[in-house]
Amino acid sequence: MEQNTRYHIRRMKDGDIPQVLEIDKDAFPTQWPHPTTNSFRLELRNKLAHYFVICRENEDGNTPGQPQPGRIKRIISFFQRFLDHDRFFGNAYINASGEYLVGIVGIWMMVDEAHITTIAVRSSYRRLGFGEWLLIVIIDLATSLHAHSVTLEVRVSNTVAQLLYEKYGFTIAGTRKKYYQDNHEDALIMTTDQLSSPVFQSRFQQLKEEHRTRWSHCYTLS
Ligand SMILES: CC(C)(COP(=O)(O)OP(=O)(O)OC[C@H]1O[C@@H](n2cnc3c(N)ncnc32)[C@H](O)[C@@H]1OP(=O)(O)O)[C@@H](O)C(=O)NCCC(=O)NCCS
Question: Whose Cα sits closest to atom 21 in ligand 1?
């Protein structure tokens, strides 16, 4: 991890889908059915859904806001999408702005509840605070949209994800028997307290600050 590598979070767009599918397969290898390009396209047009990605910048010296790559680079980049980039170049699809996606998150706003539909970080970028950053962005968004709480389902065996959620105040609200189609595993339903409560907000702001301080030594969050 280079200290001056910059990462930013932004809303997911159609051009991200090849990398998003790659992250999804990496994170949920046994899941069935896998999302497809079309299912993500539909999600991006779903008014209830909000999807975000973490991008590593500077892949080819460009950062968003700087001039776009020249025509030849854009043409090369277009054709690179159709190659198995990992195999040929030891790297994944890079979009036209030179961004490499390292994590994804999505929610559905259902009445007054924000439901996390997916959260995943590339396996080679784990334990670097990116999962936490995605969760922070979602909790901030849900708060600003006046959601009462954030909720999700998680496999009973997925203790790593459960620890992340517990850190942010999620507790177990119930179970869904045989929820997962691949192995009929049960899901835990985890949920936050009321987002607007002073106790929740005070703990959340503290965690946010700790996260920024801890990781600003390793990379730049923008
Ligand atoms: C769950 C996931 C998103 C976490 O992402 P990450 O970037 O590795 O997590 P972070 O580095 O931000 O860790 C934040 C917290 O999560 C918990 N955590 C993450 N990885 C952990 C591990 N291997 N062991 C124990 N705790 C862990 C810790 O509480 C950690 O806080 P700490 O650093 O203060 O101990 C990532 O492991 C992943 O993509 N897993 C596969 C997909 C998945 O299971 N998604 C959840 C579906 S419900």
Answer: 160
DSSP structural state of residue 84: -
Could you tell me the pTM of the whole model? 0.86
Which residues, given as ranges, of the chain have pLDDT below 50? 61-69, 81-92
Tens digit of pLDDT for each residue in 130-140? 999 999 999 99
Parse the chain into domains and list their residue ranges. 6-57+99-221
Residue 30 confidence (pLDDT)? 86
Residue among 122, 164, 182, 213 to mutate when testing ligand 1 (max atoms within 8 A of CB): 164
Report DSSP letters for 168-216, one per residue.
Answer: TT-EEEEEETT--TTT---EEEEE-S-TTSHHHHHHHHHHHHHHHHHHT
Chain-centroid distance, C-alpha 175: 24
Residue 83 has a pLDDT of: 43
Active site residues: 153, 165
Q: Establish whether residue 21 lines the binding site of ligand 1, counting it when its CB lies within 6 angstroms of any ligand atom.
A: no
pLDDT for res 86: 39
Q: Would the CB of 163 count as within 6 Å of ligand 1?
A: yes
Helix or strand or coil: residue 100? Answer: strand
Instruction: Determine the CATH number of domain 6-57+99-221.
Output: 3.40.630.30
